[in-house]
Write a structure and sequence with these properties.
CATH superfamily of the largest domain: FAD/NAD(P)-binding domain
Pfam family, one: ETF-QO_FixC_C
Structural class: alpha/beta
Number of helices: 15
Shape: globular
Radius of gyration: 23 Å
Bound molecules: flavin-adenine dinucleotide
Keywords: FAD, Flavoprotein, Oxidoreductase
Number of domains: 3
Enzyme class: oxidoreductase
Protein name: Electron transfer flavoprotein-quinone oxidoreductase
Domain FixC-like C-terminal: 368-431
């Protein structure tokens, strides 16, 4: 038998690195395998990094991590073809320590974060694809890689291999995901000098802003667009359920071009030069799409376990927390010398008790609901825009007259009833 580790972590994204970091810090002999040339080389995110979950792993990380900008403003645009109703929050408390969230570029950030796991003692091996788990007597005992004599053994294997998790699938932990359980997102990084970014987004030096784009950004298909400020680049992207793209016969890059050229977005990007194009899947099926995440000698973390909160565009933080919690359970299993499913199940219990499990439960029906009733995106957002235009146009008509017209435009009594029912249903799936 070749070399044996306490743990093998497959995949150096936020979930895998967090897990490897904590394991190594706790004294475990850990191997972190990454198929990319370096951690982050294959990874895609809008990308908002959430301070709290990162600080749970590396306190004060913001003092040395390659971050783009601390976010001081979050805007939301409900877009129609030539208009948008915008709302948001700007708070200067987010511009100073301890900060709230940051924009990051994953190619830089993941590389730095993996370096921290290596400093703790993890062994990182890049350019290595894990082909399958080695299973003996119903227990995962290692992995087979694409390297010559590429079998490696461990007491426990952590699957942090991202959204598709072919390894989890081959263990029978989950089925092939349906097109309405995953979103396909495409994005571009646009180079623009930092002063122009600050002027356009009304920011002071080293402050950042995020804008989430709804409605016409996705041509009314369930999904969102996003526009985030980095140091001297902008991240512009759009993601919709794969089923939406198939149904509407739209190619992902066509949707990205559409949102880039939308009159509400174009002025922000003007004069910028695209320097990178990225595309990736996002697991959006929620709790109902989650498969098994614990077995004998194996646990699943991050996107591989479908841990994404699509409503709040959170993923990296769920990934980090799941990686950290998995490591805690593995270290305790190491003390007991027992890596059975029963012992490792403590990870699942802790995860479901944490904000990760709680939020997954809270939004368990949201994707399915909004997918089933497309009127929220393709009818109600245009309706809100028409009402705003009506109310804010000063044309000599009284405000009462305008209110009456808005009310009339909501449609027949039957249509109004449907609207009220949809509002109630939306509240129910989000409450
Ligand atoms: P990943 O980051 O996907 O990492 C998996 C790693 O495993 C990769 O490095 C991959 O190369 C490696 N790997 C896969 N298979 C193998 C194998 N067989 N052998 C070896 N290595 C393997 N989340 C946020 O928190 N904020 C955002 O703003 C945000 N925006 C997003 C925007 C887009 C366009 C997308 C696509 C996602 C966004 N997310 C966001 C979600 C977030 O990116 C994910 O939830 C997060 O990256 C999950 O981390 P992970 O470590 O589980 O998986």
């Amino acid at each position: 038998m070749s070399e044996k580790f306490d743990a093998i972590v497959v995949g150096a994204g936020p979930a895998g690195i967090s897990c490897a970091f904590e394991l190594a810090k706790g004294g475990a002999n850990v191997l972190l395998l990454e198929r990319g040339e370096y951690p982050g080389s294959k990874n895609v995110m809008g990308g908002v990094l959430y301070r709290k979950m990162m600080e749970d792993i590396i306190p004060d990380f913001h003092k040395e991590a390659p971050l783009e900008r601390p976010i001081v403003e979050q805007r939301f645009m409900m877009m129609d073809k030539e208009s948008a109703v915008t709302f948001g929050y700007k708070g200067l408390e987010w511009a100073q320590e301890p900060y709230n969230n940051f924009t990051v570029l994953r190619a830089k950030f993941d590389q730095w974060f993996a370096g921290k796991a290596v400093e703790q003692g993890a062994l990182l091996v890049n350019e290595t694809v894990v082909l399958e788990c080695i299973v003996e007597d119903g227990k995962v005992i290692g992995v087979r890689t694409d390297r010559p004599n590429g079998e490696v053994y461990a007491d426990v294997v952590v699957l942090a291999d991202g959204v598709n998790s072919l390894l989890g699938k081959s263990l029978g932990f989950h089925k092939e995901y349906r097109p309405d359980e995953v979103a396909l997102a495409t994005m571009e990084i646009i180079k623009l000098d930092s002063k122009t970014i600050e002027e356009r987004f009304n920011l002071e030096k080293n402050q950042g802003c995020t804008i989430e784009l709804f409605g016409d950004a996705t041509k009314g298909i369930l999904g969102t667009g996003f526009l985030y400020t980095n140091k001297d680049t902008l991240s512009i992207g759009v993601g919709t359920l794969l089923s939406g793209l198939i149904e509407h016969k739209i190619r992902p890059y066509e949707l990205l071009e559409y949102v880039k050229n939308h009159p509400m977005v174009r002025p922000y990007l003007a004069g910028g030069e695209p320097v990178e194009y990225l595309a990736h899947l996002i697991p959006e099926g929620g709790l109902k799409s989650m498969g098994r995440i614990v077995g004998n000698g194996v646990v699943v973390v991050g996107d591989a376990a479908q841990l994404v909160n699509a409503i709040h565009r959170e993923g990296s933080n769920l990934a980090m927390t799941s990686g950290r919690l998995a490591a805690e359970t593995i270290l305790s299993a190491k003390e007991q010398g027992d890596f059975s499913e029963t012992t490792l199940d403590q990870y699942r219990i802790n995860l479901m008790k944490s904000f990760v499990g709680q939020d997954m439960k809270k939004y368990k029906d949201s994707t399915h609901h909004f997918n089933k009733f497309p009127q929220y995106f393709d009818q109600y957002i245009p309706m809100v825009n028409r009402a705003a235009s009506q109310m804010f146009t000063v044309d000599g008509k009284s405000k009462w007259e305008k209110q009456k017209k808005i009310w009339k435009d909501l449609g027949s009594p039957k249509e109004k009833l449907k609207l009220a029912r949809d509002a109630y249903r939306a509240w129910k799936v989000m409450k």
